[in-house]
Amino acid sequence: SEEHRAHVFLYGGHDTAVCGKGMSAVVQWLLGYPDQAARTAHEAVALAERLAHPPSLAHAVLFAALCHRFRGDVASVLACSERLL
Questions:
Q1: Which of 58, 70, 72, 84 has the fewest beta carbons under 10 Å from its own?
Q2: DSSP string for residues in 20-52
Q3: pLDDT digit string (tens) for 24-43?
Q4: What's the pLDDT at 48?
Q5: Residue 24 CB-density burial (10 A; 0-12 exposed, 13-18 middle, 19+ buried)
Q6: Is the dihedral angle over the CA atoms 11, 12, 13, 17 positive or is it negative?
């Protein structure tokens, strides 16, 4: 987020809010909420797109791919993989 933009350089080169949403999506899946996990992963990607920060976008798309993989959504995993490439 704009408020924490300076943290990008301190915490792994990606936006902390994007990372938090991505991690949240994985945790939601682990807790048994696959649909909510997919929505949160989508929110992470959308935030990263708004920030226009390629490393954050790659981070978000990776988390989205993981969530889709956990859900067995092969088409979405392939779409994320192509986007990462």
A1: 72
A2: HHHHHHHHHHHTT-HHHHHHHHHHHHHHHHHHT
A3: 999 999 999 999 999 999 99
A4: 93
A5: middle
A6: negative
The closest alpha carbon to 62, from 39, 82, 80, belongs to 80
pLDDT at position 72 = 92
What does the alpha-carbon distance between residue 82 and residue 15 come to, in Å, rounded to a whole number? 22
Distance separating alpha carbons of residues 58 and 63, to the nearest angstrom: 9
Q: Which two tokens stand for residue 20?
A: 């938090």
Cα separation, 65 vs 74, in Å, equals 9
Closest CA to 45 of 29, 62, 24, 32: 62
Q: Which residues does the chain have with pLDDT short of 70?
A: 1-13
Place of tokens 């790659």: 58
